[in-house]
Amino acid sequence: MPCGDLCDWLLDLVFKYEQENTMVDFIASDDGEVRIRDGNSPNDKMRDSPRRTRGNVDHVPYTRNQLKQLYNRHGFNLAIFRNGRVRGVLEAFNPNAVVAVMSVAMGEVQILGVESGNYLAMTEDGKLFGEPDPTQTSTVFYVQTHASYLTYLSKKYSHMGWHVGIKKNGEVKNGKMTLHPWGQRAILFSLRKPFVEHHPVRLIKNRHGFYLAIFKDGTVKGTKDENDPHSVLEFTSSDPPGAFRIHGVEADLYVAMDEKGRVYGEKNRQHEGTLFQEHAQGVYFVYLNVHSAHLGWHLGIKKSGKVKNGKKTWNPSSQKAIQFSHKFSFQTTRPIDQGFPFGEKIPPLAFIDEDVVDRDH
């Protein structure tokens, strides 16, 4: 068999295998919605997805094995947003930081932002952006190895030596500044597996031994029963960057703090009191209310198990009541909002660098 025919036969075999194993299909319907078909689901049923059809591509297949995170040496995950912006994010669970790295030729890849539907691309000025049209040559990159890391060199501007990079502040690095890549941490990336779910479900336990729990009547308090379904929390990323909402899965309410520092369960997720930021304190984490950040009000649970008023959490800053640790939750029986093409649920993947300190705080 000639070499060319052998290569074609091998490529066809690989393509056939990928088609038959864990394929996630995006199919655009007549009404403009994108639906997901997961070949591994028991009924191969169709589920609605909030994502939109981007560019002129109505069918975008990729395998689950192609879903990755590009994690660079400054501690940021490459994220591609729907408005075309590209930057680094610290949250490992940010859905915009999940990409599909797809091979288009030997040593050449395209990087698709799964949540946004945009492809990573580079302009003639060296700026990174999200491009909806995958036929553009600016969306192709050469993948190269540098020791134990990977670099991504723009194919269109390879003669200029322009690479993908993320700076220390999380902003993307202009390709013109990556001409001499040696020693630049900004352009060195590792491939990591993303969370099984784009919004991680977990428990948070404070140093008094209480898990934060939200009840259907709006009460927020501590419980020492780690199997209590009211303590299963979903963390949803939001604006401003680094902020998120804490959603009680069983109660279907969001943790909120009012202007008097009282903590309660809020139905309206858009309420200004539902936004929190996570800060690292040694091996623990604290949760600062964004609306009351200038006052230093945090989430806290007292020794009695009652929630602590925000007014009493600003000093001292190292209170046991406000210092929490993370723990992955048990499998909740309540259906969790998916809307992300990960197909069937599989056991959580322990890849997150939980000891990485949030550099923005």
UniProtKB/TrEMBL annotation:
Compositional bias, Basic and acidic residues, is annotated for 35-57
- In which family does this protein belong, per the annotation? Belongs to the heparin-binding growth factors family.
Q: Where is this region: Disordered?
A: 35-58
**Which species does this protein come from?**
Tigriopus californicus
Q: Identify the PANTHER family for this entry.
A: FIBROBLAST GROWTH FACTOR
| Recorded superkingdom | Eukaryota
- GO MF, one annotated term: growth factor activity
InterPro entries for the chain: Fibroblast_GF_fam (IPR002209), IL1/FGF (IPR008996), Let-756-like_FGF (IPR056378)
Q: Where is the signal peptide?
A: none
**UniProt name for this protein:** Fibroblast growth factor
